[in-house]
Structure formats: structure tokens, C-alpha cells
């Protein structure tokens, strides 16, 4: 199976430079193939900062030798011939694995290639559009970029300005300059008369019309550039647009060089086959794209959760950045993530926040946040050796360790909670449990806090932390391990894929438990029909939950690497690669209907690529 990134309409391929974020969508709500800029965001990558109307931006093309238009939505009704013709998505990719997204699609004999990028250090987005014929014959064509604006408050020649809020403005145009017509799209592209009606409170479709240009046989036509620029004021948006327009012909190569230079700073994993080299590059690119300008890693491509900061996922991104060699980004991401922390009434921290309000955004009750915080701080500090980081973070370290040590019950385990899976608990008629995940990540966090405590000469606390970690592991051994198999919790012998991480990413479990646990996981968590690993056993928390997830599949593969079973490890890794989009994005999971739920945050899917290849290099290709 190899699906396109958009089969779930909420699934989007991202393009970002930290200042702005665009979603590119390949399937609409009815799963019809399209090539559309679904949404464009300024500064806060949250739905409240969306700049386009719901229909986004796309392109229509008329090959003058053909009866059929390239027309994904059926706007053109000038003659027969549209029935039965749909757009076919031929290929999608990030150019060379970097920050330019390319789509090739066709309808009938008309082939359209778009490239979309966010030039570095701007608040702008550029899309180039070019066309050719599928049969390679010479022809003539007209290209019509379409954009649905939330309103039009002003025209300046062929620049159209939309105001979304007091501090959200959008300016759009095309290059070379061509006429913009607002109103009925079908009439605009066929030359029919239109009564222009623009209202600053009403959504407005805008079509840029252009003269006929030649399609030179097998080659693409010269590109038409569609420009979007955002700003906190009209003046800033216009300034960004003019700056982008003045550099538009150099913009693509400038953007590509930016990402190529960044890749030279990435840890060298050695020579990789072309397939894996592409995944390595695109995954490192997407990790960077998940960072806002202030360094906050957020969900970037899955609509229901856009704008959420999940402490677990954001720390995973920060740690992955550090492991991949991007220490400056990792430090910035760590500080930004921990700036969101708000204490719960019991002294722990909430685990999810909205990026705009910075208020908690919870689904359930989880007690693993403190252990994850300790891991994240240690991982970044251990690779940067920045003593000031420990000084800055010591109050959070102390708060986290104190909470862990004080919140164990008579079992020796951390108090019952939802574990790693936030959609679990009394709100779904399920009781919280003494989750293995929570106690184990707390133990790992304590073990790393001991190292950090020694670094700041808190030796007594270091001993206390090590003793606490050992006691938690002993409690897990006593209550949550059966015949060598590590189970989900004290209350059940069901399996949870997250425990495999404690043999690889958080190596704190006994090696004696490794083989029995991964054998049981392969037998009981592998999907019997399509392969891949479920994240848990009989813990159905949402529709389609018992389907393979990308994260757990990588995790089990990594556990097999630790067990020196390279063939089994790559069987699971390749399952994920084989179920990727053509452009290299990996889904969080597959829904029960077979559609993928797409990229939610690179921590969960694309980080698996980075971390598994780094582990493989460490174990089997050491320097």
C-alpha cells in the first residue's frame, strides 16, 4: 500500500519557515484528488490564525487544443466534456527531501506542476505553476490561479488585501502581473461579464487571468508565481509582498540552499540507499517545520489538533533535534515548550496547551509529564553541555522529581492515570490504572535527574533520585511483569506498545524482559491483516484505534535492534516506509476504513525515521 498524503481530508503536507505555515492538501472532503493550498497561517499555527477562506487556493488551466479543462471542482461549464474527468495526482515530493513541496497532476492531456515554498526569513509563501501536455505535443494554454479570500478590503493595482483581524493581514498577487477578477469563477475564466461585488465582511473568490502562453512540447511552460504575504499590519503585509516579488525568480533556489545548508549541520548517518536518504532528509526537514518562530514545536498538519502544544510530543521533538545535531533549535524548543507549564492542583503539570491562549487543553489525566520533562531536559543538556541550562531548569527539575517521589502509593508505583494514551479514563467509562508507562518514564526521569543533580553538586538529591528510580523499577518488576512479559499496568495483563521504549529510547528495563516482551507484542499487537503494531491491546478509545500506528511500529523495530535481530527490525521499519505517502510523510495510524490519519506532529511519525536510523547507526555502523 502506498497512499497519497491527503486521503483523509484533515491530513495536510506542511510548508513552513517558522513565521508562516501552509497546508497543502491532495484530497478534499469527498476524497476527490486536488492540489490545493488548504490553509495559510501567520505566526501562531492555530486555526484562529487561518488567513484563507475554507476553499483555499488552487489552479485552473485551459489547454486550447483540448475540450476538457484542468478543473478539479467543475466550475467551468462552457461546453460538454467535463463529465467523467477527474484530476489524477501523478507524484508528490519535497524537492530533494527539503522545504519545497512539488505536485505533478493531470486531467486529460493537461499536466500541471506546482511548487510551494516559504522563503526563509519572510512572512511569505510562493507557489509556482507551470503546465505541459501529457502526450508531449505542442499547444497553447491559459493558467488561472484561484484564491478564496475571507474578504477583500482594498485593491492596489493587482494586489488584493484581506483583513482577518486587527493584527492579521494578507496581501496576494501574481507574477508576472495579470488581471485579478473577483466573483464567479466560471465566468471569470471563460470571459463572461461579471458584476464585481466585494465586501469586507464576505468571503470572496479571486481569479487571476492571464494571456495565452505556449506549451513547448515535452517541456513545461515558464512558471506563473502566486504570492501570499502576511503581516501584523497592512503595511507589513505589503512590504513582505513587495520584497518577495522583487526576489521571486531567485526565491526557489534561495530556499533550497537554506535547507541544503541546514542538512550539512545534521548528524551524518553514513551512506544510505536513495529511498532511506530521502526519508532521512524529509524527516529532518519536517522536524524543523514543526517549530514556530519562538521555537515552540506544535502539531502542524492534522486539522482537529492544530495549534496544540503537547508536552510529551514537543519534548520528543526537542530531543530529536538534539540527537540529530541541531542543538540550537533543540535548546530553543526546550525553553519554549517548558514556558507553557502550568501546575495542576496536585503539583504536577498539565500536558497539553493551546498555542494562542497558552491555557491547558486536556483530554484526560496523565501523570507522566514530570518524567518526560526530566528526560527532555537531560537529553538536550547532555548533548549541549550547557551549564546555564541546568541552572535555568533546576526549579522545574526539583518540582518534577519531588512530585514523582511523593506520588507513589502502597504499590510503589505512580498513582493511577491514563498512561501515555490521553484518550483513556473515566470519561470513557474506564478506570485509571497503575500504568507501566507512567512509572517507567518517571523512573527514567529520576535516573537522569540524578546525573543533573551531581552536575550542580546536589549529591544528596542525586542519591535520593537514584533510589527512587530503583524502587519504581522494583515495583514494576513485582506488579507489572508476568513470566518476563511487561504488561500495560498492575490491573491487567494486556499489552501496551509504549513499554518497548524502555529497552531502546529509555533503556531502564532488564534485558531479561526483552525477548519475552517483544515476542508477545509481535503475537498480540501486530495487525493480522495489514501488519504494523497497535499501540495497545483491547484499549479501544476512539473509532479505528485498533489499527497499526507508526510510532509503536518503529518502537518494536528498535527493540528488535537491541535484541540484535536486524532482519525483524527492518521488517517493521519497512512496513512504515511502505505505507508512507509518495512525498515521504508517515501517518499516525490507519483508520478502520483504511484511510490514514496523517501527520499530526513529526515527533510521532517522522521522528521514528530519525531515531531508528540513528539507533541502527549507533549499533551497527559505529564510527
TrEMBL record:
Q: What are this entry's molecular-function GO terms?
A: hydrolase activity, hydrolyzing O-glycosyl compounds
The GO annotation for biological process reads:
carbohydrate metabolic process
InterPro entries in the record: 6-hairpin_glycosidase_sf, 6hp_glycosidase-like_sf, GH15-like
SUPFAM superfamilies annotated for this entry?
Six-hairpin glycosidases
Q: Which Pfam families match?
A: Glyco_hydro_15
Q: Tell me which domain of life the UniProt entry assigns to the organism this sequence originates from.
A: Bacteria
Q: Tell me the leader sequence span.
A: none
All copies of domain GH15-like, residue ranges: 367-500
The name of this protein is GH15-like domain-containing protein
User: Source organism lineage?
Assistant: Bacteria, Bacillati, Bacillota, Bacilli, Bacillales
